[in-house]
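Q: Entry one of two.
A:
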Amino acid sequence: MNVRRLIPGTAVAATALLGLGALSGCSSSGAAGGSDGKLDIMASFYPMQYLAEEIGGGHVEVTTLTEPGQEPHDLEISARQTAAMEESDLVLYLKGLQPAVDEAVQQSEARTKVDATTLTSLEKDGPEPERSAGSGEPSKSGEPSKSGEPAGGHADEHGHAEDEHGHAEEGHAEDGHGHGEEEKPAREDGADKATEEEAGHDGHDHGHSHDGPDPHIWLDPVRYAEVAKGLGKAMAKADPDHAADYGRNTDALVKRLDALHTKFENGLRDTRTDVFITTHSAFGYLADRYGLIEESITGLDPESEPSGARIKALQQTAKADKVDTVFYETLVSDRTAKTLANDAGLRTDVLDPVEGITDKSKGDDYVQVMEANLTALRTALGAK
């Protein structure tokens, strides 16, 4: 059985306390720092912006470093944005996704810096689906393996987040979402031995291209809810006059994300296949949460080029696992995905990593686009 490789000490939504006792630099009066009395928040890209706006409501002014339609991985920070960051009451970012943002935040003297990756758990090189003993297939999250160990989910973990002074306070985060699905039959493996060796020891190359942890935590509604809880506490500390409202808004947002998780859990419980092919490895956490396997063309870097061996392995995988769809994204070129689909006789569809909302998005906000993703996955996986 594959063992998850969690980065030690990174978990915990409650670590959004961000050293709650150490945020005195936010304001000597305890009020928001903006001239209009609002908490000025700089968000690195849309998923962070969405959380800040939903939790802050009318008490915050949120700006984003990444414009709608801009591919976030390639962002370069302008001098104007750097200056705006310095004036912000709170900077919310996701370390490891945008190198330019990481560097700017590190050099910034912004009053409070919130790294979303410290508010939940990350996995090195992205999550790997658990495989049930003897079948070679992933078991649904939470299903006991034949050794008696749980196959998914994660225990309460401990981590920390730092403000600009480097102070931290420990907190606790609970997953609280179990799964109990039936194991699916072993796949019919049509790949030859050489192709399996090229693809990976289990015949599935997850396309990982670097040594760092997978930052795409927002595509798992459970992890995203953990980040929301932590951010709500950090905002309440930064602007205590409106702490009660932030708390209520956080609770309401978490309920919506819990409902979204339930829709995915129920909608993907019984499918023809557990394998789906994407342009790049954005959906590893989602796949892990719901007992699926993501096969990516380019790995964690959406701009990298796949090798000929990788394309061959994906063609074999599509045949062996009865995959009929190749997913592409709205903000990244669909050329390679459509070439693979044409060569293998597959159809194409959009699976949106929700890195930004544009006119092409199948929804007006995070929840709506994720619901559209669920519909696309159910169709591609042959959900019953």
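Q: Entry two of two.
A:
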Amino acid sequence: MPEPRETAVYTHGHHESVLRSHTWRTAANSAAYLLPSLKPHMKVLDIGCGPGTITADLAELVPDGHVTGVDRAPEILERARATAAGRGLANVDFAVADVHALDYPDDTFCVVHAHQVLQHVGDPVRALREMRRVVRPGGIVAVRDADYEAMTWYPASEGLDRWLDLYRRVARANGGEPDAGRRLKAWALRAGHTDITATSATWTFAAPEERAWWSGLWADRTLASAYADRARQGGQATTRELRDVADAWREWGAREDGWFSVLHGEILCRKEA
């Protein structure tokens, strides 16, 4: 595996097929492990906020507090601002930031949250160290990431096997770690966290509408997103091979007995008071 580096290329980009997935995410389906720890007055930093759907939910859950959503991509923050404005939220703001070097003083936030972020960064240990730095004593660093190698489906599909192998190779060529979920606790320990609660949770796609949505967004992502461009440019796949993978996704989605599960690793790290 290559040595960690501070920056990595974001594998997915912000194609419509990617945002179709990201805007589906809510605090309930993507941060349930954190929600019991939230209090109305808290000041929260949401790292890698993307289009802001989870950020907006967090703002509603801390009505007497404040949420700051940050992302490296300025263009996606406009979408996040529109999400918050559409929900009439006044206790949220957004800014461009790099998780490796957060522009906030020590001990600023009650909670620092990151969903599906560390799999895409060049140095996740440094990122977790920065998150620990900006959270207050007694505060929480909450991180959740998928683990691609642990994803599983039925029925067996050589095409989806090729998809998984291809995605992992492209993500690692971009400087990321697609199997981040299983590594979160180890990374947190290396970053200096000592009070760590590690859990896991899944997304499951089995109902007809779920299969159609999940398979459709991955088929489209395989053909038209930044991920597809990087697979071609990096020599990991030809256009024909990408079409074959997209076809495999659609074939799986049309199966009445189709089932797909996404495993996530989760950590809650409480900073020493």
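A: Comment on entry two: The chain has ten helices and eight strands. The radius of gyration is 18 Å.
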